[in-house]
Specification:
Distance between the termini: 138 Å
Number of helices: 2
Structural class: mainly beta
Shape: rod-shaped
Number of domains: 3
CATH architecture of the largest domain: Sandwich
Strand order of the largest sheet: 2-8-7-4-5
CATH class of the largest domain: Mainly Beta
Number of strands: 24
Strand content: over 45%
Oligomer: single chain
Order of helices and strands: HEEEEEEEEEEEEEEEEEEEEEEHEE
Radius of gyration: 49 Å
Amino acid sequence: MRVYGTPITLMVAFMLITTLFAGCSGLGNINPNAKLISDVGEINAGETVNFDARGSTTPDPTIIEEYRWDFDDGNQRTTKQGVANHQFSIPGYYSIEVTVVNDQGGTDTEYISLFVNSPPTLIFEVSTVIRTGDTVSLDASDSIDPEGGVVSFEWDFDITVDTNNDGNPSNDVDAHTSISSGLLLAESGNRTGRITVIDDKGATNTSTWTVMVISRTFKITWEQKHVELEWNGYLEQGKSYEIMKNPFPDSRIISMNSTLVLARDILPIMWPEDNFTLSIRVPSSGWNIFSSTTHDNITQNASTTILKNQMNAYPESGYTISADSSEELLYSLLNQAGQRFGQGDWIWTITADECHPDIPIDGIDPDQGNDWKLVIDFLVLVPRISEIGI
């Protein structure tokens, strides 16, 4: 007995197998499609770039298993995620590539270009040692940009001082020129500043500089001088005349002698002599005094004298001393503790207390006052300051 169905069954089975294999061969290209972007196209050396290959695709039903990165600087990396970042320290042009690999072993590679800008070359000269009161020459004009761009400059003349008062002394900019020759340093000690050169792409190069500022040497000699001052005038009874003067702001006062002399009444009928008062005040020293004129001898004018000795001590003379400036030294010499008596304004007040009647004419005194003369003699010490060892 023949079984007719068997060949048909075998044929159907063959056709199904053929169809199955035909479906498998329909997968065609199993390679993924790599996509790569970065957040920037150029950076300055030392900065970091973020790369993103998450836009890559692969045919269904395959999946991407890994991303192989080559940063073109000798560094490579493999990640499961489609992102990576990398720091580029050496300037130049780079071709970064990512190879996308799927679970079927298929691969695809994508490239992206990157320019890494080199920092400018900082070349500068600065004085290393100067004397107080001299200026520092700061010159960075030879600085260049290796790519040929334009450079700018930022000088900070003292890294310890917050010039712009924002609480951060590290961000001060005191000058923008390539050469700064007007920095005068008046105080001795070390001065440290900062210079930053910037190229047209924002890359910077910064360096600090230090100048040693040495004080000057002076010889001090005190010169003794007598100085005479004189005023005169006319006062009617009850009137006053005031003289205010800062006599010797640049000297040390040792003594003072003030003498007030009245014009004489020659005729006996005009006697007794007139009576004036002389008062002296030195507000800064808290000293004041007064004295009235007397007429001890008819052959002499009525007068009074006020004398003040030993206001300050005689200082040592002929010695040398270091200081930042002659002005600073003079100030210290004149303001030594306990040696400031007589500084500031002096006030002399002359008052006509009583002017006796002269020969009346029609009952009227023709001269209701008197002439006076004030002579003041000061003994002072003047400091002579001369620089040595220049």
